[in-house]
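Residues pack. Consider this:
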Amino acid sequence: MSTGKTTQDEINGVLWKACDTFRGVIDASQYKDYILVMLFVKYISDVWEERYDELKEQYKGDDELIKRRLQRDRFVMPDGCHFKDLYNAREESNIGERINNALSQIEDANREKLQGVFRNIDFNSESNLGQTKDRNGRLRHLLNDFADPRLDLRPSRIGNQDIIGDAYEYLISKFAAGAGKKAGEFYTPAEVSELIAELVDPQAGERICDPTCGSGSLLIKCGNQLKNRGINDFSLYGQEITGSTWALAKMNMFLHGMDNARVEWGDTIRSPKLLENDRTMKFEVVVANPPFSLDKWGHEDVSNDAYNRFHRGLPPKSKGDYAFISHMIETTTANSGRVAVVVPHGVLFRGAAEGTIRQKLIEENLLDAVIGLPANLFFGTGIPAAIVVLKRNKADKNVMFIDASSEYNSDKTQNRLREEDIAKIVATYKERQTIDKYAYLASTDEIKENDYNLNIPRYVDTFEEEEEIDIKAVQKRIVQIETELAETEAEMQKHLKELGYAA
């Protein structure tokens, strides 16, 4: 039995058990929405309840005064929408409809922060959750799991730790592991997000954007870089193309106490939503893990781009990597803008239109670093990736190449960057010193001599010479083995004779 404060492991265990309700019924990439939405409802219900109890004592039970005060707090919980209301209705035949109505009312009451968040989730869906009897049974099990006493999410029970945000991240990472290729649509591994956040080093007062933000984990890592230093003067912006993933990002921001973040829903390339005065907004920091080599990314739609994002050239129709890179660069501030983006290695050396764009980026002295990562870091793909760092107003005309592909921890199914791996990459990037077989500081003239090819092995030599073979020692050992073998065979023949077997 749990005692004292609720622990992270307790919460994670209850939530993962709740997933059994849907395993084998619908795909992990779909059932994550039901679990995470219910976690969100349970959390805001528990927070609201504890705040209500505090005010009840303060206002001596005056319900009207309490409700008015609660409405000035972080969010509003409409009557009948608390998790306990849904739990008490778990045996009703229309429980799916009841949950949908509660979500709609919560959204309406908190429109500024939650507008549209629940539009893509349907707890009364026959196609996802089965016919009435089966659906009601699954929802009843789900509500029972979330009523577990260990899942007490009141602030006084979970303390100052970001247990709910961490539980949310835990679930998203677990879903990503089970969702295969679809995982990349909504999740960047926490270690990679941490590395990127440290590379861009956000500062007080800066605007930080992720134009392909998924569930928002990378933005949150950047925000935490500042919050951990006691800085709250920053702003987060994101855009996400998939509706259900956009909703996860909105809830994720809320759960991490960053509910003032602006996250838009839409296609960043075809229809950027983060605009000011009919132009793309400018940010000091832009980070992203966009889809690798996306086909049909919008080539035809942006051939006459209203925002002039592709003046260095249009990427090929079948590979959208440089479309995202071009967008990111054009949304940075002129004096201090910096970009960190995850890319497949083809971005570093492919020719034609991509080669032209890459050459112009280098000639404009925007490229700051190329960092090779280990293979099998990302869910849904085993291919190795790289992080490209670009910078406005650079202090030098060099490019830092780092080959970090061989330093990682190997789990059963996934490789992971360790704390020491991240620390080494960041330190090497900042110090900008050549390290044998790990890093090389190249001049733009050297890169030009390589025809603007950024393939990391051209700059970082990781070749290990094989140990010289001592031929005489090997021959001597072979003679010794042959002698021992002959002696053994003679001994066997002797024993066979003694046993009466002819040779």
About this structure: The radius of gyration is 29 Å. The domain at 8-161 is CATH 1.20.1260.30 (Ferritin). The CA atoms of residues 19 and 101 lie 23 Å apart.
